[in-house]
Amino acid sequence: MPGMGSLADITPPIALGALDGRYRAAVAPLVDHLSEAALNRARVHVEIEWLIHLTDRRVVPGVRQLTETEIARLRAIVAEFGADDIAELAEIERETVHDVKAVEYYLKRRMPDILGEDSEQLAELVHFCCTSEDINNLCYALMVKGAVQTVWLPKAEDLLEQLAALAAEHAEVPMLSRTHGQAATPTTLGKELAVSVHRLRRQVRRVAATDFLGKLNGATGTYGAHVAAVPEANWPAISNTFVTDRLGLTWNPLTTQIESHDWQAELYSDVARFNRILHNLCTDVWTYISLGYFAQVRGQGTVGSSTMPHKVNPIRFENAEANLEVSNALFDVLSSTLVQSRMQRDLTDSSMQRNIGTAFGHGMLALDNVCRGLAGLDAVPAQMAADLDGNWEVLGEPIQSAMRALGAQGFGGMENPYERLKELTRGRRIDGDDLREFVRGLGLPTEVEQRMLDLTPQTYVGLAPELARRHL
């Protein structure tokens, strides 16, 4: 705006996005895994482990093994990686205009101090026979694995534990269902929450079972440079043991220049599906709040509305909805684009993968909001009971079903049960007295009649309590 100073010049820099601004605390654990700095640290880690692997296996004839002290000092570079290293890499990259090459030069600077007299020769094994994608694909696999296993999965499990406890607590609280938004067969609050637990848990199991793939096979996946340099080595076996034993990933034996990213697409689709189920839970809970089935606990120091003092808005669930939608938009584009690459290589995946942290970040923010939102809810059984008491017509279903069963057994007078109940209930409200009078006029066997007379909307919940407990 005219006449105003530039916010871009303020120090420390102001975040452009909400994740690094107002929501930083909720997503901060992801920085260790999915930030630009984490990517560079992972590159340093992979390059160092490749050097150790080559010398440990004596792949190149005449090259000595590293001592335990040297290995420890090399690995300390990764362990102690911090702000000064980030700045140094940035300085080198301004010269190389290549991020992976900058890491190679960064490490070679340190070789004389660590490896001694023959450091110049050993330093040639840094990035030996590697294309940038050999390093990057392994880094992303390690980074995403770390983010999923140490950040996302624990948060998802916390949500499931919280939601399951809420479902168990309210397993027997009767509640009117609304199919198509209309009054329908009653259920229990706990059973409906248990459905979400069951669905979300299935996706969590899929995410937990992810194979994180990696490859190291050269510029076009042929080990061309490797065989040219050291033809007697079993390069596929060396690559396999490096990826699996040293890095703890799953080896991909056949690729172009890039690891095909299929595992990433599979993972992001599973996380996106989890997000969509969670979004469904948010909209349902929002609706239950609007119906008065849940009260939002007051006294949490929040302002519900800036102008209406009585309101406590369901902002946690609305915030979660928005962030789940942003997260899924990113996961969807990641899933659809990462599996494609022109011929043996293009760089679209390089730019695309820089958004992985943002995709997980918005998902983590949503998880945080849902957990906080659920913690602020109190069920209101009295409101659910009042809603049930105002909808006795839902008992038309069990009565006509009992009549059908009797008709199938040859019991007389049970003709057209559906139509008779439709005439009684459709388009108008009835109360308990209306329904009981109708039941008494049906000529049901005594035992069946009494069962129907004893039925109320509150008790017509079938196996809902048992189902809720059994599947939590």
Automatic annotation (TrEMBL):
<dbReference type="GO" id="GO:0016829">
    <property type="term" value="F:lyase activity"/>
</dbReference>
<dbReference type="InterPro" id="IPR020557">
    <property type="entry name" value="Fumarate_lyase_CS"/>
</dbReference>
<dbReference type="InterPro" id="IPR004769">
    <property type="entry name" value="Pur_lyase"/>
</dbReference>
<protein>
    <recommendedName>
        <fullName>Adenylosuccinate lyase</fullName>
        <ecNumber>4.3.2.2</ecNumber>
    </recommendedName>
</protein>
<dbReference type="InterPro" id="IPR047136">
    <property type="entry name" value="PurB_bact"/>
</dbReference>
<dbReference type="InterPro" id="IPR024083">
    <property type="entry name" value="Fumarase/histidase_N"/>
</dbReference>
<comment type="function">
    <text>Catalyzes two reactions in de novo purine nucleotide biosynthesis. Catalyzes the breakdown of 5-aminoimidazole- (N-succinylocarboxamide) ribotide (SAICAR or 2-[5-amino-1-(5-phospho-beta-D-ribosyl)imidazole-4-carboxamido]succinate) to 5-aminoimidazole-4-carboxamide ribotide (AICAR or 5-amino-1-(5-phospho-beta-D-ribosyl)imidazole-4-carboxamide) and fumarate, and of adenylosuccinate (ADS or N(6)-(1,2-dicarboxyethyl)-AMP) to adenosine monophosphate (AMP) and fumarate.</text>
</comment>
<keyword id="KW-0456">Lyase</keyword>
<dbReference type="Pfam" id="PF08328">
    <property type="entry name" value="ASL_C"/>
</dbReference>
<keyword id="KW-0658">Purine biosynthesis</keyword>
<feature type="domain" description="Adenylosuccinate lyase PurB C-terminal">
    <location>
        <begin position="341"/>
        <end position="461"/>
    </location>
</feature>
<dbReference type="Pfam" id="PF00206">
    <property type="entry name" value="Lyase_1"/>
</dbReference>
<comment type="pathway">
    <text>Purine metabolism; AMP biosynthesis via de novo pathway; AMP from IMP: step 2/2.</text>
</comment>
<comment type="pathway">
    <text>Purine metabolism; IMP biosynthesis via de novo pathway; 5-amino-1-(5-phospho-D-ribosyl)imidazole-4-carboxamide from 5-amino-1-(5-phospho-D-ribosyl)imidazole-4-carboxylate: step 2/2.</text>
</comment>
<feature type="domain" description="Fumarate lyase N-terminal">
    <location>
        <begin position="21"/>
        <end position="320"/>
    </location>
</feature>
<comment type="similarity">
    <text>Belongs to the lyase 1 family. Adenylosuccinate lyase subfamily.</text>
</comment>
<dbReference type="InterPro" id="IPR013539">
    <property type="entry name" value="PurB_C"/>
</dbReference>
<dbReference type="InterPro" id="IPR008948">
    <property type="entry name" value="L-Aspartase-like"/>
</dbReference>
<dbReference type="InterPro" id="IPR000362">
    <property type="entry name" value="Fumarate_lyase_fam"/>
</dbReference>
<dbReference type="InterPro" id="IPR022761">
    <property type="entry name" value="Fumarate_lyase_N"/>
</dbReference>
